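Figure 2 data, in text form.
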Amino acid sequence: MHFTNRKSKFITLALFLLLPVIVFSGCATTAGPGTSASGLSSGNVALSTKMSSSIFLQPVSPQDKTVYVSTRNTSTATGLNFRNELISSLISEGYRVTNNPQEANFMVMSNIRYIGVESNNYTVAGALAGGFGGAFVGSRYNSGTSMVAGGAIGALAGGIIGSMFQNKNYIMIVDIQLEQRQAGTYTTSSTNASQGTASNITTYNAGVKNWAIFRDRIVSQASAMNLVFASAEPLLKQQMAHSIANLLP
């Protein structure tokens, strides 16, 4: 009889520990690949986009809204095909895309520096602080693991739930260069490089006539419980393309 009581208590305790898992297991979801970016959220995924600075271009008449697009990818990710998303967003904003730079009144050049999980080496804050062409390292935020605390049993149950419900952040870091045809403008650039100890060499590049040039860095973030990269990637690309296209007047 004593053994039966102990067995009954053990079963009761086991059921108590498993109850939160049974109750909450249906809540751990990931965004389906069919979801689309809309505003600041898409399904259960929170989206955000930030820039290292603001860019303002001069408005033009509808017939002058022609743009040349160049996309590069120097990240470790392959097969992103970001060009299609960017062109689609530009067309939706009323622009005609041309393959001839001589016909264009605008040029949009982008380089994907990183796309993947946010980590200590790749952060939103670090990327924005580094600016165009800079580094990524910075402090993390908006991350963590859900935990249920309250006594030994509560902590154990919380640990089980926490392993199931993890807030995952993915980011896309893109450097952009926007150019607008403007008569009378003249843009020059220079590069400073270290040479030995306490010495620098400066290289002045040729000027660009009749084009106003703007450079910036844009970082998009997708965040959700148990979000997987396969679901985050299309959302990040769509959100990034939408942001870049809306920089043009």
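Caption note: The helical segments are 2-24, 82-92, 124-130, 151-164, 229-245.
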